[in-house]
Amino acid sequence: MIQTIPAPDNVVAFRALGEVTANDYKTIIAPAVKRLVEQINEINFLFLIDTEIENFTASAWLEDAFIGLKNFGKWNRAAIVTDSDHAISFTNAFSYVVPGNFKGFKKDAFEQALEWVQGNSQKE
């Protein structure tokens, strides 16, 4: 399941718990991303992964990719917060192949991630 996390007006933030499905992306993430793009014409995105990566269904990964591609030129900053070193490495490498800045953070750096994604931290 995906929950919305309270965040500043220029950020959409989510927390993944338990099993994550395509429906979570379609009903929670996609509408919030669409509203943010309509409001500020860019995406600042924080995603706290509080479940095992294996709990994301294949259709959830496809929906994630669809949202990313649909908004390809709108990504500004995306912070992925997880204790998975593999997910953090993947996220950090993502900035080299797509527009925008993508950065992985450990869970104990959640506040730093939120500051960074909203643009209050210049640390890259």
From TrEMBL:
<protein>
    <submittedName>
        <fullName>STAS/SEC14 domain-containing protein</fullName>
    </submittedName>
</protein>
<dbReference type="InterPro" id="IPR021866">
    <property type="entry name" value="SpoIIAA-like"/>
</dbReference>
<dbReference type="Pfam" id="PF11964">
    <property type="entry name" value="SpoIIAA-like"/>
</dbReference>
<dbReference type="InterPro" id="IPR038396">
    <property type="entry name" value="SpoIIAA-like_sf"/>
</dbReference>
<dbReference type="InterPro" id="IPR036513">
    <property type="entry name" value="STAS_dom_sf"/>
</dbReference>
